[in-house]
Amino acid sequence: MSSDMISSLYVFVLAGFVGFEVIRRVSPLLHTPLMSLTNALDAIAVVGAIVIAGRQQSTLGTVLGTLAVIASMSNVVGGFLITDRMLRMFRRGERKQQ
Amino acid sequence: MIEQFIQVAYILAVALFILSLRWLSAPSTARRGVLAGEIGMALAIGATLLNPEIVSYRWIFIAFVIGGAIGIPLGLVQMTAVPQRTALSHAFGAFAATLVGTAEYYLEVPKIAHFMMFALVMEVILGSLTFTGSLMAAGKLQEVLPQRPITYRGQNFVNLSILGAAILIGIYLIIHPEASYLFPLIVVIPLVFGVLMIIPIGGADMPTVISLLNSYAGLAAAAMGFVLNSKLLIVAGALDGSSGFILSVIMCRAMNRSFTNVLFGAFGQVQASADAHEDRTVRSASPEDAAAILESASSVIIVPGYGMAVAQAQHRVRELYDLLTRRGINVRFAIHPVAGRMPGHMNVLLAEADIPYDKLLDMDEANPEFPQTDVALVIGANDVTNPAARTNRLSPIYGMPILEVDKARTVMVIKRSLSPGFAGVDNELYYLDKTLMLFGDAKAFVGAIVRELSHAQGAAA
To answer: Which of B240, B354, B358, B383 is the catalytic position?
Structure first.
C-alpha cells in the first residue's frame, strides 16, 4: 500500500468521527435539510469529474466525465437551493404575529 | 505553485463543509451553514478549474449549464415531494461515482495497484446499486411504482446470490486488476441488485431506506476520493456516509427494527390478520363536539402523521393552531421520528404551513408532556400512537417507541375508518374510554372544527 493510500485512510477515519460527532448534534427538527445539505456537499465529486472530463485522455473518459459533471452539478445547484428554501421556512413563534 | 494553491483551496473547502454541518445543528444558525457550504463548494470548483491537467473547458462548461438546468427545478419542488427529490439526488450522486470509477478504471488499466482496485470496486458496486436503488425508491415515493412490498418465495436467496456474485467478481478483480473483461459485470450486476433490493420494501419503510441509500452514496463518493487521491472527496464522502448511517440508525430505532429486518423483512403483509376482530365499541364525535372540547382545554398536543400530509391538511391545521393559540390555549405538535416519508419530513411540512418550529416537539420532548395535556389530537397517525407497543407482548409492534397520547386526559383521533395501519394491527387507543373518534377526511374535518371555532369567536365578539 502506498503512503498516499495510508494517509487517505487516516483522513477517512478521522472525517468519519468528525461527521459522527457533528451530525449527532443536529436536532431531529432539521433532519430533512441535513440530508439535502450533505447531498449537496457530497456532490463535491464534481471536482473529480471535471478533471476527467477536461483531461481529454480518451473519448470514453471525456464522455463519462462530462456525464458525471452534469449529474453532480445538478446536485450542487438543486441541493443548496432546496436546503435554503426549507430553512427559510423555519420560523420562531414570536416573529409570527402580523 | 498552482498545485499548492489548489490544495489550500481544498483545505479551506473541507473546513467550510464541516462548519456548514456544525451550523446546521440549530435553526438559528442553519442558513449560515448553507452559505458556508456554498462558499466551500465554489472555492473547490474554482480551484479545480485551474488544474493544469485540464486541456479543454468546452465540455466542462456545457455540463455545468446542463447540470444547473436540471438542478434548478429539482431545487424548486414542493415540500411534499422532497423525499423523492432526495432519492433522485442520491441516484445522481451515485451515478457520478459509477461513471468516474468506470472512466478511471479504463484510463489506468492495467497499472492499477490492489488497494486502489479495492477502492474502485467499492466505488463502482456501491455507486451502481445506489443508482438503481434510489431510482426505484424515488419511483415508489412518487407513486409511479407500486408502493406495496412485492415479495416472492426465495427472494432473499435470489437477492443475496446476485450481490454475492458481484462481490466475488469484485474480489477477483482486486487480485487481477487487469481482467478488464470482468469489469462491466461489477457495474451491471449491482444495477440489477439495486432494483431487486427495493422491490420488497414498502412505502412506510422509506425513511430508513432513503437514509441507508444516502449512506451508500456517501461511501461511494469516499471510495472515489481514494481512487482519485482527493482528500476533499474523502472528507465529504465520509461526512455524508456517517450522516446517512446515523439517520438510518435513528429510523430503525424509531420502528424498533434492525437493518436486516427492514431490508429483508417485507413488514406488514404477514400479520395483517393476526388480530381477531372482536366487536368492540368506539365513541365517535362530531366537529361541534370536538370544537367544544378543544375550546375548553388549556393545553393541546397535535400528533400529525403522514395521513395529514396525504390529505393536504397542513394549512387547515395551521388555522386551527392560530384559533386555539389566540384563545390562550397552549398548542404544540408531537412528531414521531418516522412521521413522513423521510427523516424530519413532517417538521418541514409544518414549517411550510407557517407553524413556528419551537412548537414542534420530538418524541423525547413530547412524551413527558402528555400526562399534563388536556387534549391529544391525532391526525392521520396510527401505529406510532398504539399503546400495544408498550403493553402487548404479542403485538408485532411491541417495543416500538410510541407517542404516549393515551396518557393525555382526552384523546381525539381524526381518521377515515377503523382500518388498521401499516403494521396491520388494531390500535388499542381507539377503544379507550377517553378516546373520541372523529371519522372523516383529515382536511375536511379540521376545516369543520375551524369553522365551528371561528363561528363561536364571531358570536363572542
So the answer is: B383
